[in-house]
Design goal:
- The protein is mostly beta strands.
- The protein is built from 3 helices and 14 strands.
- The chain is about 5% helix and about 55% strand.
- Strands 1, 2, 3, 4, 5 and 6 form a 6-stranded antiparallel beta sheet that branches. It has a 4-stranded antiparallel beta sheet with strand order 7-14-9-12, with no helix packed on it.
Length: about 260
Amino acid sequence: MGLLGQIQSGALFTRQTTTLSEGSGSTTAFGLSYILLDVTSTSAARVRLYSDSASLGIDTPRTTSSFNYSASVGLNLDTSLDSASKLIFDPPIIATTFSGSETWYNVSSGSVTITYYPIESAYATRQELTFYAQSLPTGSRITGNLTSPKAFLLLSASASTSQSRLRLFSRDIATIPVTETARGFGTASTDGSSLIVDMVFDSSSYAYKISPVLQAYNLATYIQGDNFVGYAIDNVSTSTLSNVTASLYIYTIED
């Protein structure tokens, strides 16, 4: 993204702090997307940040010992400080919102001060990337390249069918090894696969909230980059034929 794009999206170009008190609520201080740098607590506390109010409502009962949460939960941060202390996020965490500019939070005790860097305060540069696979037999896939920004934040994803798989790659799909495109879901990708994300949609009723946010880059040429991502779409349903549509909701960081 150039200077104009950063200005249009509300970039402030300075680090900010905001303080959250014990309890649950919402704040617009962070903006739409932001980079979490550190958190300082006045006492032992668990701190959670969410992308929307629905996520807060669903996830509030989850205990600190449980790491399983629904794909419908936009969880930007879940951390515990065992005393009055400062926790630095290294590498930093990229967070976002899905409903307006409100970040919802839950602080178990005391108060916390969070340092962050705002990168998006207006919807000017958010967009949708859509992948189509018509008449795709079960157990089969199509591959290709789709026009996209050179670099973007992947915020959420959805599909038209409840049984489909989508993979994104940082290079031309023609250069991706066959062993990678044929790899089964749940099997680890190998080094040099250029894999950005590998996701299976088990529901078509809601968008999957990707929190913390994923960063995607085109690495076809390291100097300049190109405006595409490689992709593979699989029909993993039990039906014999499906028209598969997958959509990604992104925030451009490099045109």
